[in-house]
Specification:
CATH architecture of the largest domain: 3-Layer(aba) Sandwich
Helix content: 55-70%
CATH topology of the largest domain: Rossmann fold
Order of helices and strands: HHHHEHEHEHEHEHEHEEHHHHHHHHHHEE
Number of domains: 3
Number of helices: 20
Strand order of the largest sheet: 3-2-4-1-5-6-7-8
Oligomer: single chain
Radius of gyration: 25 Å
Structural class: alpha/beta
CATH class of the largest domain: Alpha Beta
Largest sheet: 8 strands, mixed
Number of strands: 10
Strand content: 5-15%
Length: 443
């Protein structure tokens, strides 16, 4: 995410770090590189122009604090301006009014509306809400079946629409069924088109008039850059959308759409899709996103992911085992499963401040399949072997490798890594471990 933009901005800031103070000349040189980086990232030219003007105005004549270098001072200003540009704070999904609150998902074909509807349903269910999925796209082949399948995967009920039903009738009937069934959120997956046309907007306008949604969210592909921004403006002009969900953010190395949309449309980005899995939907926090863009990490999002994925009771049990130096292969396996729930290892490492700037990390592509192999190897062990690794001799290693579909070398490597982790835990225990918050450990 934002890899190209982050690299170019860091190069621009690097040029400023050697100066003893901020002058008009060195600021202009640095901002020229920042301007080029933003334009190459497909940020709207008007947005770039206003952003650079704001940064320049704040930077010139700015006294440098004793604890910060000129380069750091500019990074701080850019961070604040980017945050302001993208909306300053997270805007919640609007679910006010009579129940069930209706949320319309609109957008062009291929933007990911149907999958996003399932992701949003899963997110709401995690907040103890009861969403009702509505397939209002009878035109696209298998669209209704796709939403039904996604609904079953996340455990959400789906309105039984059929291909011969009119989209407006589907939404009207679903609203009545939702009220009778005690649902508190109606998520309408509307039909899209290959491009914006009058028929599409007229149909969406009729649905809006019929169900009176509490929120209308445009689902747009982040990788289309300025096309996503232009589309957001067109949908907003026609429907007065409440916000945007940017999909495929994990593949957007530029970031132009995320930076430009709020300024051009005055409507916030509320969520971002960061993967194909149905839990890969994140609330959009402008301040955290600005930090990611500048390669400063995103610790708060990392903590939130851990809190969602980690079982508090299991974390407390693990803490006790760590204190007693009783960390077994079973515990090792459990931690691997918890990490897999949090998402891609590469994305998690990028959230740690400073890690995104490391050349070694960029060259090192983390293979998430390794976690699958580790789990398979430990699953192929007996209970006794998991609890006492020292009994795993050569013949047992061959049996475990065969049972897990791996090699003896991979089994050896796992055991070696486990021993190293245990040694590290023993060293940490000498310094003392104490808990912080839910499911967390601290030295």
């Amino acid at each position: 995410m934002f890899e190209n933009l982050t690299d170019k901005l860091n190069l621009a800031f690097k040029k400023l770090k050697g100066h003893g103070k901020l002058t008009e000349k060195n600021i202009d040189v640095g901002l020229k590189d920042v301007r080029l980086a933003l334009l190459e990232a497909d940020v709207h030219y008007k947005v770039v122009k206003d952003l650079i003007a704001s940064i320049r105005e704040r930077a010139i004549g700015q006294g440098v604090l004793d604890s910060v270098t000129p380069g750091q001072q500019v990074v701080k200003i850019v961070n604040e301006e980017l945050t302001q540009l993208m909306g300053s704070k997270h805007v919640e999904l609007c679910l006010t009014g009579s129940q069930p609150a209706v949320v319309m998902l609109v957008g062009l074909q291929g933007s990911g509306k149907t999958t996003t509807a399932g992701k949003l349903a899963k997110l709401l269910m995690g907040q103890r809400r009861r969403p009702y999925l509505v397939p209002a796209d009878p035109y696209r082949p298998a669209a209704i079946d796709q939403l039904k399948k996604i609904g079953s995967q996340v455990g959400a009920e789906v309105f039984p629409a059929t291909k011969d039903m009119d989209p407006v009738d589907i939404c009207r009937n679903a609203l009545l069924t939702g009220r009778q069934g005690g649902f508190d959120a109606l998520l309408i997956d509307t039909a899209g088109r290959l491009h914006i046309d009058e028929a599409l907007m007229a149909e969406l306008g009729q649905i809006k008039e019929t169900v009176r949604p509490s929120d209308i969210l445009l689902v747009a592909d982040a990788m289309t850059g300025q096309d996503a921004v232009n589309m957001a403006k067109a949908f907003d002009d026609a429907l007065d959308i409440g916000g945007v969900i940017l999909t495929k953010m994990e593949g957007d190395a530029r970031g132009g759409a995320a930076i430009s949309i709020k300024t051009i449309t005055s409507k916030p980005i509320k969520f971002v899709g960061v993967g194909e899995k149905l839990d890969a939907l994140e609330p959009f926090h402008p301040d955290r996103m600005a930090s990611r863009i500048l390669g400063m990490g995103d610790v708060l999002s990392l903590i939130e992911k851990a809190q969602i994925s980690m079982d508090e009771k299991k974390a407390q049990e693990l803490e006790k085992k760590l204190r007693r130096n009783e960390f077994t292969l079973e515990d090792f396996r459990e931690q691997m499963i918890q990490i897999r729930k949090m998402g891609s290892l590469e994305d998690l490492l990028a959230m740690i401040p400073g890690m995104g700037k490391l050349k070694q990390l960029k060259q090192f592509k983390v293979d998430d399949r390794e976690l699958v192999r580790i789990t398979a190897i430990i699953d192929s062990m007996t209970v006794g072997e998991r609890r006492n690794h020292s009994i795993v001799n050569a013949s047992r290693r061959r049996r475990i490798a065969t049972g897990s579909g791996t090699t003896v070398q991979e089994v050896n490597q796992l055991l070696k890594n486990y021993v190293q982790v245990n040694k590290m835990i023993k060293k940490l225990n000498k310094g003392g471990l104490r808990t912080v918050g839910r499911g967390g450990l601290r030295l």
